[in-house]
User: Which sequence fits this backbone?
DNA sequence: TTTTATGCATAATAATTTTATGTATTACTT
DNA sequence: AAGTAATACATAAAATTATTATGCATAAAA
């Protein structure tokens, strides 16, 4: 992740949501998708991405499927059932975070 | 900071914005203000807050003014000029972050 | 009078990410 | 044909940030 330090803690949410939307993806593909969607504003670093994928897999959130394209190895990741549940939870957390930050930063968003 | 790990990296933004809005505040007051605004959803931990205030002071973003209320010491923090500039920058970063996260998480927010 | 609230502080630990590497295949350019 | 850029994985050391656990002390409330 290369950008502001605000993105700290957002990596898992991003990975889960993209997998939720795209069925299966491999690591490099995720980095490219993020660059594309954010118009180069956010670049996932490999040193953050791969350990995060491995951890999610170890936690049973993702299932891996190794594929070979020519002589090159690809690891396709897919959400498990638990991963899908976790995605929902993470998205709710993000909405809550955004709501709270908006309230903190903009008095207009503070309700009585 | 006690909540999701999404808040990692947001502490400085929160502190600067509250000081920008309230002219001067002391540490404990900041924790209470955050609780109030977020309706207890976000609790700043002292172990995070005080070191952050000290660091911002060392960086020249904040100016301290010690005050005594009864026998109790309070440290009022106030933005310096640099601190005010930094606040503007941090708020812009937050908006950018929210925009990017919305795009990542909600296809509706992706523009061509 | 004892608990809760106010008010500061720091140190050890944990978690997450950056930076720096490393390996290897494939495509593009000159 | 050779060199560079892109694709694709991986990990380890260092840095950053926050949590947890303390510690001290005053003031208010039960």
Assistant:
């Amino acid at each position: 992740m290369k950008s502001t330090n605000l993105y700290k803690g957002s990596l898992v949410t991003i990975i889960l949501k993209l997998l939720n939307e795209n069925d299966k993806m491999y690591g490099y593909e995720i980095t490219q998708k993020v660059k594309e969607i954010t118009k180069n504003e956010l670049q996932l670093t490999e040193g953050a991405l791969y350990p995060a994928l491995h951890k999610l897999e170890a936690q049973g959130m993702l299932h891996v499927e190794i594929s070979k394209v020519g002589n090159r190895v690809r690891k396709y990741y897919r959400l498990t059932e638990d991963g899908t549940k976790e995605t929902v939870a993470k998205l709710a957390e993000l909405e809550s975070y955004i709501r709270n930050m908006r309230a903190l930063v903009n008095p207009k968003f503070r309700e009585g």
Q: What stands out?
A: The first strand of chain B starts at residue 24 and ends at 26. Chain B is about 55% helix and 15% strand. Residues 5, 8, 26-29, 32, 46-47, 50-51, 54, 69, 72-75 of chain B lie near DNA strand C (CB under 10 Å from a C1').
